[in-house]
Amino acid sequence: MLKKELLDILVCPQCKGRLKYDVEAAELICHACKLAYPIKEDIPIMLVAKARKIDD
Predict the structure, then answer these.
(1) What is the structure's pLDDT at 19?
(2) pLDDT tens digits, residue range 31-56?
(3) d(Cα 9, Cα 7) in Å, to the nearest integer?
(4) pTM above 0.85?
(5) pLDDT at position 56, please?
(6) How many domains does the chain have?
(7) In this predicted model, what pLDDT tens digit does every residue of 8-33 receive, in sequence order?
(8) SUPFAM superfamilies, per this entry (predicted)?
(9) Residue 21 maps to which CATH number?
(10) Burial of 53 (0-12, 13-18, 19+ CB in 10 A)
(11) Which of 10, 35, 52, 56 counts the most CB atoms within 10 A of its CB?
């Protein structure tokens, strides 16, 4: 589980928008870009190339 302090400063690397933390899927979601950034071993992978495209 990610700490609140870290979640407060992380933004989408593509649009610099806010991210929503999906605990169950272990992802940080940017609704503006429709991307989900994976979290591996409590480390967010904030690379656009590694993000999963999502449908809204």
Answers:
(1) 98
(2) 999 999 999 999 999 999 999 999 86
(3) 6
(4) yes
(5) 61
(6) 1
(7) 999 999 999 999 999 999 999 999 99
(8) Trm112p-like (SSF158997)
(9) 2.20.25.10
(10) exposed
(11) 35
Pairing of strands 20-22, 35-40: unpaired
Q: Tell me, what amino acid is at 26?
A: A
Domain that holds residue 36: 4-53
Three-class DSSP category at 31: coil
What pLDDT is stored for residue 1 in this prediction? 85
Cα separation of 33 and 17, whole Å?
9
* Nearest alpha-carbon partner for 33 in 9, 53, 4, 5: 53
CA atoms within 13 A on the CB side of 54: 17
